[in-house]
Amino acid sequence: CELLSSLPVAVISLAGAVTLEQHPRELAVKEGDPVTFQCNMKGDSMRYYYMSWYRRGPSGSQEWIYKDGSYTQGFQDRFKVTDQSSRNRFPLQIRAANQGDAGTYYFLTWNSTALDT
């Protein structure tokens, strides 16, 4: 049975220099299977950015999974973010997918200079 719906191609250009690539684009898994979403940055170092993951459920509701260095309540047990910012990667893993995990997953990043402008 399908658990996770499409993941949009997230190729975002910031100031013409930084690009984010998120994959896989679309994924269907069986209940209990592990799932990994990747996000890679090109054009700058992730070490200088704040990083977050969120999902939009089938009903359109938005839920933060990981934001500003910590998990939102309810996500810390089965969801794992691995900080690989030194390699410009920030993967999100679901240890054992279930029906409640269906949705579209997004990676969001910003740096402190963006907040100052």
UniProtKB/TrEMBL annotation:
Query: Cross-referenced InterPro entries, in alphabetical order?
Result: Ig-like_dom (IPR007110), Ig-like_dom_sf (IPR036179), Ig-like_fold (IPR013783), Ig_sub (IPR003599), Ig_V-set (IPR013106), IgHV (IPR050199)
Tell me which GO cellular component terms the UniProt record holds: extracellular region; immunoglobulin complex
List keywords of the entry alphabetically. Answer: Adaptive immunity, Immunity, Immunoglobulin, Signal
Could you tell me which residue ranges the Ig-like domain spans?
A: 8-117
Sections of the chain in a coiled coil: none
Q: What's this protein's name?
A: Ig-like domain-containing protein
Q: Which Pfam families match?
A: V-set
Species of origin: Malurus cyaneus samueli
Q: Which domain of life is it from?
A: Eukaryota
Q: Which PROSITE patterns would you find in this protein's record?
A: IG_LIKE (PS50835)
Q: Where is the signal peptide?
A: 1-17
Does the entry feature the keyword Lipoprotein, yes or no?
no
Q: Which GO terms describe its biological process?
A: adaptive immune response
